[in-house]
## 1
Amino acid sequence: MTGATSPSVVEVRVEYKPGVLDPEASSIEKSLGLLGIPEVSHVGTARIYRLEFSGVSQVEAERLAARAVDRLLANPVIHRVTITASPPP
Amino acid sequence: MTGATSPSVVEVRVEYKPGVLDPEASSIEKSLGLLGIPEVSHVGTARIYRLEFSGVSQVEAERLAARAVDRLLANPVIHRVTITASPPP
């Protein structure tokens, strides 16, 4: 790796497992109805974390991203996690 | 449209414009360093809203999603918004 290489990028998507209460989504559903958009029948939310790594390969970046998920970014009891390597900018 | 059609789905991605302070991302960057993952050089966050519409076409769903963004989901001063029609499940 040289300093000139572009960073390895990994996107982590964290959403609730089916059946877990998502109060923000419920609030949005209700608000959209009140705002005159009642055609929305269901809302789900997710959080994206875009991690840029410097000085490591893409493979290593994915391994480190999985560790970041385990240590900090998600709770396996309630969250479903999707890791995407090299997402579009 | 009949009741048997599957819902039209639109995903809205809301992230901060470049230069807007993202305190959650800064906190994650710092925490990952403390947790032994200092290879992360930059973190960005985004919010995904998955909107399911019933009884409207995909084109109409996209139009309504854009209205939901304007009325509720994003602040054009600080947010950049990407709307994706028919995202993967």
## 2
Amino acid sequence: MKATVHVFLKAGVLDVQGKAVESALHGLGWPDVSAVRVGRVIEFDLVAQDAATADAEVEAMCDRLLANTVIESFRVEITP
Amino acid sequence: MKATVHVFLKAGVLDVQGKAVESALHGLGWPDVSAVRVGRVIEFDLVAQDAATADAEVEAMCDRLLANTVIESFRVEITP
């Protein structure tokens, strides 16, 4: 199965990288761009009996390694 | 409109971050994980007349700022 994990800073946390990108886009001539958020996406293959098992495994991976859950939220997608 | 840009290293380029994550997951007890790729995802709002215009604008942003097209590929999604 294929897992895709999106990791973003939580809503209340200042996204410095997003602010830098937004400022750069404004400077390059796109003043209408707003609310820029920069996150990570992690894709991988894994072996699991079914999608529910895979989802639980990947959530555990996020909690332990892939996301800093104090300041980041994550979303898991499993495709067969 | 809302734009989502996924940026990944091209297939032939060594993904050092992905390799590190894969190795860490193996060490944490998930030996069945493979082909880990780590990329960036950039989300933002923009003003555009229609989805096609927005798509063209965002592709231009990727070429100029958001992706290093020598070693990275990108995928743009526009949602109203």
